[in-house]
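Page header: ASSEMBLY MODEL / two components / 270 residues total.
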Amino acid sequence: MKGLSKKGQVGLLAPTIISLVLAAVILILGLVMLQEVRDTEVMTNAVSVSIVNETISSVNEVGDYVAHYSDPAAADFALSELCTNASDGVVIQAANYTFSTAGLLTITADGGDTTFNNTDWKCSYGYNMGDQAFISTNATLVGLGTFGDFWEIIVLAIIITIVIGLLLATFAGTGKR
Amino acid sequence: MKTMNKKGQIGNLAPAIISLVLAAVILILGLVMLQEVRDTNIMTAGDEAYKATNETLTGMGTFGDFWEIIVLAVVITVVIGLLLTTFSGGRER
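Prediction written out in full:
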């Protein structure tokens, strides 16, 4: 173990930490950049979708999300016409419910027509969503972000290397250090 | 293991991350370009060019699913390399 020395082992610590911090900073800045790119208008509003007569089950005061609310970057939900009661086709007046831009349909608690509470509705609506580029960017962001889970094991490996190296330098044989 | 040393193992980390981030940024910008080209007025949904562009976009986009395994490979390389330099006998580092 000719090259092992106590000073050398401990001396590795500072450059190692500098490298780690540098790597972490680059990673984080990269992730921030990717996130900013992902959230640009061109990515998030790539596609405009129209849904006609989707059945929404048991609409109530708590609210029900439409089926597509969790599409990639889905936003700007808006009804294209008044909802109807699914069983008899009766038009439900707008005062009876609210529809959020996130796709949540809720019966108004105060003064709403209770006839339609907890019944199935049919609604037509439109929204914007991201396309393949958004999906891939998001997957890239998540994938690169998993690096964050491994810093502990990298730090542990460095500590082990330094500690074991130090112990080896001290106790392994009687050679000159 | 002539070129192995502890400093080198950790020193590989920053360039590896820079390469990964750079590759990711280029990939994403490429995908955005492809998507914008696909959505121009010169192509319509039934065109061969549209279909080909869409397939290219989808195909290239699957790269996004593999970043985790690439990151894992980098981490394993660094950690195993680091441990090997310590425990792989008494060679000079």
